[in-house]
Design goal:
Length: about 190
């Protein structure tokens, strides 16, 4: 369950001092969010999205697909560190931006819904990503076999059950992901 900790002054340095216990630790504006280690289904769904994105972007000088654990930070980089399940960073001159990535480097962020705290994915992270300049944010819900998508802070969002299309700047054709096929493959 992704619950905020009671202390609200966490820093990346404090986060780095925590023991490696398999849980995911993220901080947003100094608030610590702890989620359990991802489930098998979570990892399989994230892997399917990563595979589609990696293949689509193979050889591209526009962007690169990545998966967590990998740090993305914003603003006060000492008090903000998130790890989207799957994400795409914009390449500059064919090269990745410096690590840890800034929110503005991210073109697409995908989270596989955390069953214990949907508020974290659907509100807190959505607001963070959209306000931070991420072009698109998707939440995959493996139980409902859908994707929710937002493209701006004011976007009320859309829900897709059959396919989702993404075409970043610099790519000649769109990526179309067959959602029933993706979820079927992840559940094998």
């Amino acid at each position: 369950m992704g619950m905020p900790a009671t202390q609200e002054n966490w820093t990346v340095e404090m986060l780095d001092a925590l023991p490696d216990d398999g849980q995911r630790y993220e901080i947003i504006d100094g608030v610590l969010y702890v989620t359990p280690a991802p489930s098998n289904v979570h990892q399989l769904v994230a892997g399917e999205f990563f595979g589609h994105l990696r293949e689509y972007l193979r050889g591209s000088t526009a962007a690169r697909a990545l998966f967590s654990p990998a740090d993305v930070r914003r603003g006060d980089r000492t008090r903000n560190r998130v790890q989207p399940d799957v994400f795409v960073v914009r390449l500059v001159g064919g090269k990745q931006p410096p690590y840890p990535y800034a929110l503005g480097d991210v073109m697409l962020a995908i989270e596989v819904q955390s069953p214990g705290n949907p508020l974290l994915d659907y509100q807190i992270k959505r607001e963070l990503y959209m306000a931070g300049g991420v072009s698109e944010y998707w939440i995959a819900n493996p139980d409902a076999r859908i994707i929710s998508r937002w493209r701006s802070v004011d976007d009320p969002g859309e829900v897709f059950s059959q396919s989702i299309t993404w075409q970043p700047s610099g790519m000649p054709a769109p990526l179309v992901i067959d959602l029933p096929g993706l979820y079927d493959e992840a559940s094998r």
